[in-house]
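Support request, priority: normal
Reporter: lab tech (M.K.)
Component: structure prediction queue

Hi team, I submitted a job for Flagellin from Veronia pacifica yesterday, and the status page still shows it as pending. I've pasted the exact input below so you can check whether something in the sequence is tripping the parser. The sequence length should be 407 residues. Please let me know if I need to resubmit or if it's stuck on your end.
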Amino acid sequence: MSGIIFNSFQQSVFSNQIKVQQNLVAESSTKIASGQRIHSAGDDAAGLQLSNRLNSQASGMDVSFRNINEGLSILEVADAAIEESTSIFQRVRELAVRASNGSLGQSERDSIQVEITALKDELDRISETTSFGGEKLLNGSFGSKTLQVGTDAGEGLSITMPDLTLDKMTINSNPELFKNSNGYFSIRDAAAAEGDYLTWEVERGPLTDNWIALNIPSDTATYGSDYGNWDASYDGGNTWGATKYYGNYLIPSEGGGDSFLVRVYAYDNSTYEGNESFALSIQTNGGELRAQGHIIDDADYYMKDFNVNTIGDAQNTINAADGAIRHLDEERSKIAAIQNKLDHSLHNLAENQINIETAKSKIINTDLAKETTKYAKHSILQNASSAILSQAKNLPTNRLQIMAQLS
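Reply from support: The job had stalled in the queue. We restarted it manually and it finished. Here are the results:
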């Protein structure tokens, strides 16, 4: 009786051991076949949670890749259109140089004007039709949009497209230039639209008091009641500076050598409005001063009226075309800067994605060498337990045989 009880206990132990080893063999087999060591929270709860977060981040990066590439495509379309506009302005300049030749008669100038007018129409068509995915890029409707370049909220990059339509402003490339007995020059320009700014490019002569004052009629101002003057100083060399005194006007001065650039901005579309006059006064020794002035829409450069009817008109057109080309180059530089940002963002995303995939692999992927060893170990234990259990079933018979022999 005691032998039967002992045998039943052995069978129970070895049966349980076989089941344990079978489960471990099946688990190792699944991990080897799938290549992943985590299939449920029971395998590694913390590892599973971290793996899920990394999965979310990696999938977000895939979307960010598409966003950045779309942004680059938008910039490439806009850049190509501005490049073509630059080529058109260069052609306009060539025609104006040709029209500046005194040997040409009126009929030749009229022929040149026909081509210039056609080129202006093409400039307008480019600005009105350049689009990406149905979104107009250069007619002012695009404005500023944000690209989601990262995987988390707030990781955006703003893209701003210029408004290059031709009907926004008027350019006067030949402003009136006055000089009085005190050596003051006044450069007057008019027809400024709301939100525009004025530009004067001045080539200096011998200056005395080393200052520039901009006087704006008070009845066109909307910020406060006293605007005073805006002064820009000349340091005796070739550098000009600017100082803001009242209101919300601004005169940044740029340039070197014998020229400088003065702009008056309307930041909130309310600095000046209507068809008012503006004066730029420069005190000199009563000597030389040459200047050209423009009214330019904010952040844009347009040409509404080119003509080469006279040599003087052709000369003004040359100057205006030069200014337009400079401005379009500035716009292309801005686009190139954003393209470089997006390129770096794309490269950074690619590097981060590699690092995230590597980290995720270390967390969830199976160590095949280790798991194969475990699989072999549990298979051997399973087979050994099965063999022992088989032998245990024969113990009663073997004991009877031994007892029979002894008797």
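The longest strand covers residues 207-215. Helices lie at 2-34, 45-99, 106-129, 311-364, 368-393, 395-406. Let us know if anything else looks off. Ticket resolved.
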